[in-house]
Every structure is written in structure tokens, then in C-alpha cells.
Amino acid sequence: MGGGSVGAVGASPAVTGYDPPPNPPPQGGRAFGWGLLALVLLGLAFPAGAKEVYKPASTLQDEPVSLDELLPEFEDLLPPLAPPDVPRQKVVEEEEPEEAAVIKPSRKKAPEAEAAKPEALYKVYPAPYIAPEAPPVQPTRAHDETPPAATEPEPAPALPSPAFMAAMTKATAVGSQFFPILPWGASPDTVPQLLPMASNHGLDEDHSAITRAIVFIHDLSREAGAGVATLTTLAGGDNDTTLILAPQFPLSVDITRFGSRLPEGGRNVARWMGDGGLRDAWSSGGLSVSKPPQQGVSSFAAIDLLLLYLADTNRFPRLQSIVLVGHGMGGDFVQRYAAAGIAPDLIKPQGLPVRYLVANASSYIYFTGARPSAEGPSFARPDMAQCPGVNRYPYGLDDLTAYARRNGGNAMRLRYTERRVMYLLSDRIASDPYLDTSCAAAVQGRSRVERGRNYERYLVQSFGDSALSSQSFTLVPNSDYDPAILFGSYCGLAMLFGDGACASTLMPH
Question: Under a CB-based contact definition with an 8 Å cutoff, are residues 234 and 9 in contact?
Fold first, then answer.
């Protein structure tokens, strides 16, 4: 699936929680505490005597749980997401005095505020804490020197192409700001895994002025900080009211390379395998690496927790919209999450919409067995003998992951066109070594742009022209494989910082 690094536009702004090499971040790091109510809110743990909402993973494939069954259970177990005494505030641009009175986020916390941090915060959503101070790590070698043989990670087995895996095994810097994630059904005493998080504003700052949140999903390079820098530059004067978050999904090789700079040597930092195939990769909602008695955490469940955190009106009283955006492999992630994600439906009653920006995705999930025909613009079933995995997740609805089975294929199919999704495609990519070349992806088209055009036709054929009332496809000229150009295009800016309105430009119907 997608690859390449995200380039910043102009001078790269400072990014919170991300320290690229060769300047290593300090020992320790910033993390979030977590509490019982946060676990219950995600369905990760249930109070004593409460009825479990989800069935064991071993039974999910045969008896998927629908959202219609899920939501009443949450209503019985929890108070409303938006308490009556903390309504979500509407932003009125005409009221200049009120705007001026809003307390702007401060990057420097007052000592007395730190000392008076109330214990109750830990029982609502993960509250920030600073990891214990530790002496700085003295580098033992220059950044560009060859590491000792004892610490050199073994190369992972090949995935779709050698170039693909070459990028997968390049370790990227791991940040110093973390967000706690837990598996479904975790007990209250479960130790959370820590997800590195880059952002333009610290997670422990005052967010009362934030009206828009952008969650950026990195591509194959896993350069979360570079994505934040690009979007921060594009945000310009809107940075004060825009929170840009970029979770980083490290591979085991990243922890090996940077473990000495991470809390407790990186023992509890979440990481994913690079050799388990695309179905189990972080880009498809795969589980993080775990050792018994721990359980792996789906990368999609991590986004669920992040969205529920953003939906807390105590922390974000003025937040009006959330945009989930990804380029390359990040675009693959966003497109699958738009189909399978659980949290967007949980926060929808709050009037907090989630939009999706899919840029230069390498492949798409199809909801039926039809694929583009080699004979023309029609669709037909491919030869299963030649391509047996064509309908297997993440390309189709067969053999879904445990996370995706919580909704089930039928719910994913019926709900997808209700999602507000924008697809951005480069008109021509001169060199694309990270294109998914597997048989299941190749039957979707020969290139990213061809696969995008075919997917637009597929949605219209499967769901009718009404599919394009909520989803749009746009071709961006002269953009090659540069996410900064795609995000900075008219439609990209409209989706990220405007109302998201932009007409499809690929083909008439």
C-alpha cells in the first residue's frame, strides 16, 4: 500500500511530541493517565454486574453484534456523552467580544495548575501526566554511523514488493508524547499501551478555544511529525483554533531502534508487526503486538478512543467538526476506517460530525464480489482460481478482522455511503514503488488514479448516483505523489478547513 514521506510546505513549524533524528527526544515522555469511565465508554471494561455488550472474539464471526444492539447497551451503562450542564458551545462569528474573551491555549502550564490537578479528571477521560524524569541518554554513535550488529533488526519477510518492505524496515523517530490505548474487554487494572502522538498543541494544554480537530494518519514512512508540520503550515492563522493530531503506529523495529529514549525502554509503547500481511497490518485495523496476559489493540480501536476523547465537552467545549485524513497507506487506513469505524456513530448524537479525506489510496475495500472488468467500464467477478484472496479483507468483506466483525459486513455495506468521504487523486505519478501490487489490489486497476476512477464507478453502480451526494472524487493536476499539493488544493483545503463542499471532477455519470 502507499508509501513515501510527507513533505512540509515552506518552513516546518514546531511539532509537539515529535523529535526526528538526528536530535533524539529526551528520556521519558508525555503520556495520558486513564480511568474506569474511559474504559467503559469504549466498551473496554464494564462495571461489576453489568451486562457485557460484546461476545468473545471466538464467536464474533458467527454472531456479529450490530450497532442497533450496541447503542442501547451504552445508554444503559453510561451518562450522556454531552452532559446537560456542559452543552457543546456554538461558534458565533458575529460575537467579536465573546471570541476575544476565549482563553487561548498556553504551551506553558502554571506550576499551581499542575499541582492542583484534580483526581476526578482521571475518571472522565485520560488525563495527562509527565513521565518521571530520567538522565538524558548520551549518544554512543553518530546518527549516520552503522549501528552495532547486535542491535540491527532482522529484515521482515517481503510483502507485496521489495520496495514496499524496504520502506517498512526503515525505522523512524518515535515521539515523546503518548496516548493510552486498551483492547476491547480490558479490565480496569489493565496497563495501557502507549501510542506516540504528534500534535500542533500539547495534549495537556487548555483546548477551550479549539473548534476543529484534524486527525492525520501517516503513510508507510510513519513520519507522523512531518504530516503535522504540513497541515500546521496549511492551517496558517487557524492554528489557534485547530488541533492537529497524528498518532504514530510504530513497528517493532522502531522500538528496537529508539527504545532507550522511550518510557521504561519502550516496554509499554504500542507496536505493530511488519511481516504479518496486509490484513493484520496497522493500516487495516490490525492488532498491536502483545505478550500474554496482554491483548493486542486494534489500530482502529485506538482511533475510536481518540475520537471519544475529542467528543468530551469538558475538554473541547467548542469543537464543531473532526476530519480524519490520510495519504498513501494512510489513505488506505482512512478508507477502511470509514467503513468499519465504531466511534463515529457513538459521537454522532452529539452533533459532532466526522469527515474523511482519502488521498492517493493504493486500494479500496469492495462490498461485493464485482471488480472492474478488463473488457471495459463494466464490472464482473474475477477468476477466483487465479486470485483467491480478491474478496478477503482488506480488499473485500471475507475473513474480516475481529474489530470489523463487531459491525459485520452488511452494516459496513449499508452504512458506507452515509459517510462523508472525499477522495483526492494525483493525475500522474512519475514513480510509484510503493503501489500495492498484490493480485487482490491489481484487479482494481493498474495505478492509483485508475483504481480511484474505477471505485467511483463502482459506488455509483452499487448504490446509485445518490452515493455521490456524500462522497466526491477529485483529480489534482501536477501533484505527483506530494500530499502537500493534494491537501493544499482547493478541494483539500475545503475539506480540511472549510465545509467540505467540492464537486466530483473525475467523470460524468
Answer: yes
**Of the CATH numbers 3.20.20.300, 3.40.50.1820, 3.50.50.60, 3.40.190.10, which one belongs to the domain with range 30-85+118-137+146-497?**
3.40.50.1820
Instruction: Decide if 208 contacts 312 (C-beta within 8 A).
Output: no
**DSSP β-ladder status, 193-199 and 242-247:** antiparallel
CA 331 to chain centre: 9
Question: In angstroms, what CA-CA distances link 256 with 169, 249, 266?
Answer: 11, 14, 9
Neighbouring-strand partners of residue 194: 180, 269
**Helix ranges (DSSP H) in 23-66:** 36-41, 57-60
Q: Per-residue pLDDT tens for 92-135?
A: 554 444 443 333 334 344 444 444 333 322 222 333 333 333 33
Contact 41, 58 (CB under 8 A): no
- Give residue limits of the domains in the chain: 30-85+118-137+146-497
Q: pTM score, two decimals?
A: 0.72
For 409-422, letters b (16+ CB in 10 Å) and e give bebbbebbbebbbb
Grid cell locating 124: 472522565
Backbone angles phi and psi of 159, in degrees to 5: -100, -145
Strands (E), 304-353: 321-327
For strand 354-359 and strand 321-327, is the pairing parallel, antiparallel, or unpaired? parallel
Decide: 455 and 444 in contact? Cβ < 8 Å: yes
Residue 280 cell numbers, joined = 493484520
* pLDDT band at 88; cut points 50, 70, 90: low
DSSP letters, 398-417, are BS--HHHHTT-HHHHHHHGG
User: What amino acid occupies position 181?
Assistant: I
d(CA 177, CA 225): 11
First to last CA, the chain: 29
